[in-house]
Amino acid sequence: MINRIVPIMFKLRRTSFACVTRRTLVMLFPFVLLGSIAQIFQVTVFSKNGFVNSLCNLSNWLPHFNKYRIFFGNFTSLTLGIVSMLAAYQAAQYTARYFHRDNQMAGLTGLITFLLLCIKPLNFMSNGISLNWILLGSNGLLLGLIIGYITGWMFRLLERPLFKQAMRTDDILDRAFFALPAIFGMILLGLIVSMGINFLQRSGVISNIVVSFETFSENQNVIWYVLLLGVLTTVLAWMGLAGPYATVGAMYTDQNYTDNLNYALSHKSAWNVPHQFTATTLYQGFGSFGGVGATLALIIAITLVSHGSGYLRVARWSLLPAFFNNNSPIMIGVPLLFNPMYIIPFILAPLVNMIIAAGAIAIHIMPPLVYPVPDGTPGMLVAFIGTNGNIMALIVGIILLGIDVLLYLPFVKLAERVKDAMKEGANNSEGT
Amino acid sequence: MKGRKKNVIIILLCLCITLGLSFPSYFWTKKNVSSLTRWHNSKLSPVIMIPGSSATENRFDTLVELLNKDAQQQHSLLKVKVWNSGKITYTGSIKPKDNEPFIVVAFENNKDGYANILKQASMFNEAFKQLRKRYNFNNFKGIGHSNGGLIYTAFLEKYLDNDDAKIKKLMTIGSPFNFAEKSTANKTQMLADFIAKRSKIPSSLTVYSVAGTKNYASDGLVPLNSVSAGKFIYQDQVSSYTEITVTGVNAQHSSLPQNKQIVTLIKQYILDENQQVQTNKSGSQDPNQQGDANN
Predict the structure, then answer these.
(1) Are residues A188 and A311 in the same domain?
(2) Under a CB-based contact definition with an 8 Å cutoff, are residues A412 and A305 in contact?
(3) Best mutation site among A258, A260, A302, A405 for testing chain B: the one with the most B CBs within 10 Å?
(4) Per the CB < 8 Å rule, is A299 touching B11?
């Protein structure tokens, strides 16, 4: 079985899109890592509802408390917040290089095309261009990569291959004129698509879809829908998109959460709240240790079995963010994004967690999570705090983390084998 | 291997710190939950609007559209209609994650007159009780246009104290507290009744009374002095009572709800500030604020 999977993975990894994706993501890693750490400071330490601030009341005695938050927030916005734009640049550059075209021109073209798609519908109240920042951040990664890849292809189709490295100004000018048709083609394409998106947005199609989707997720009080939407969230996260339950730092709250909290507060007990199995009680409390996909377990699994110093180092640096439920560094560093190797445990671990947590709630081992939890609380403590300090919730959480590690272990081993096979392949091809 | 050892040490350290943090977390959540239980404040805080006479539940559509334009957080709109039979119907819905929806309560019997206003206040009370049950909010904000402000006043004096939901702010827009009387010397029966029972109005409330002026004396329908008569009811009874006069384009009585200054006033005074998402923001809030609104 494994012997059959390894060559398939091996082949998948050698497709041009996979190569470009992997290289692009690796280049983004340092920015994402720094941005994530700044985000922890922004959300957990220097925000009013943040975990650290809640515990030590920093805002009461630390002067300029808000300024720190703004500082870290700005830093996050300009690293993590523009990661898709960087991805468009890098992906275009690598694709062009892959096809032996002018990679720098392609990179810049990819960047501009991506920005064109991020323009918000023109608004007569404000002057200047306003950009859709949500798309520029990690939610637009897929779009950024695709734009970059298409740009690279456009250069392959419309530009003559480069034979020499441009050294003098004249050569650079030549390059510019060679690239002109491809640049023009890409920007035209970007403008047309951008206008199409704006038209859809103005006619309300997109927001209607989003609203009906949210209402759908809202009205379901059945455990199956919660599990289904949890799976959807992880699948979309795997593709670099934000799913229904994806939140940064803050808790996912909906009408069910409000009902539960009101019930628990007026009855002074969390045990018999009206909605036992909700996004908050299952997914928020147990389905996302280390962010979407329970990546904290992956970091531990890598630590236990990986023998390449690269993975170990990525795991080490991603650990702190993952403790605060920020999975961006590990998603990009391994990378987990678009990586078929890890999709099974990535979906399975949160699902298993949610099912076991539902069981534990059903047989009254622990109460459901109903009380408010500070923003940016470490994943392990979310359920503990949300159940008003129920020790069983903490123990169930630790057991689930162990199960997740066991789920991830075989896949980390598999990844190691594929990597070894790649290395051998590279050595052989070099040898011949 | 050296790298692995480092990782193991860091992971164990993190786990220990987490377990260590569980103690302060425990005390924090105990304290937080007990203070929440004492002051049980729901996150959901709707803005409940009542239209004036002969207006339907669609009266505030344009206003809501204007408020949602350029807003980071979109407010949903739920329309409630109370029929004379006592039946209550709903259109629209409250989106999940929306903590500040707009709810419009309109009546099949939307006639003018004091007797009708008392009837509408009692119908509003029924709708309000049902809304409370459905959505579990325990605080809200009110906006009443024209007679809607009178219905609100009657509701606050007659019904609200039976309930444990708290009204935080109330804005009346062009509400004729003295009906069509131009002089406050002649008090109508309604105004006299309102003044007599003013002590029932919650003292923690903040009230804004907005008047429109088309000419110097009225908004084309309601005399300025009739709007000003609200001070006899609210001033010194509520924690703060402010009268605001809006002039210029769209200051005529029936177009007040879509008046640009009034939209800005609602944004500024009625809506909660903490609604904005604190992640990346590109948006300008409302660039053209203040200035010509207050005179």
Answers:
(1) no
(2) yes
(3) A258
(4) yes
